[in-house]
Amino acid sequence: MTALIFLMMAIAMMTASAGYRGTSIGLFGVSFVAAVLWFDRYAIEMPRLPL
Amino acid sequence: MGSFVRLGNALGAAGIAMVLLVAFGLQFGLNEPPCPLCTLQRVAFVLCSFGFVLNLRFGVQPLHYGLALLGALFGVVASGYQVLQHIAPGAAAYGSPILGMHLDTWSLMLFFAVIAVTALLLMLSGRPDHDRSDHQTAMRFRGILRFAVYLLIAVTLANAANSFAQCGPNECAANPTGYWISQVLR
Question: Which of A13, A32, A45 has its CB closest to that of B53?
Fold first, then answer.
């Protein structure tokens, strides 16, 4: 999944440098949501704070 | 001021590319594959560098800085969560410490630095480049600015290949010890 997110971001940067601003921002949005969902999948343990 | 802000954005993009290259160097130098949260922190670095890329290609606009800040905030959450996992005395942290701190702590500090630099560039930017034509901004996208963006694209593609080599189509192990691709090719 993270490989896909990196790939989408690389394509977003390539489309941005080619001049397609809307497409690149859309790809950023998809990548950002995917990254947040993937983080939510791994953030399952409560932080163990010294109290 | 405009050229200073453009240079600041180029340095931001190149700086994040260097951070990702150093992470690669430590990964292969110390033979420590990144954990899933460490890889997500690399994703966050790429996300916040995207705002700088847009500023370099399309001219400085508040929306682009906003995207950089969103990426940096995601990085603060991901690295802060990992720091809190290991903050209790006796809790084992992942990986070797570098200059006395683990990489998640370095990441957290760097994401705060990205937020500070983005805020500074936003204050110095002044009027947005809405009035400039795409041709004008495209003409200025050359030299060191173009090199910084291409370096970032190359490092992002290298990270995509690295993530696939490490985990393949499966979910990454919480404490990875090797690479999926080496098991397939064996």
Answer: A13
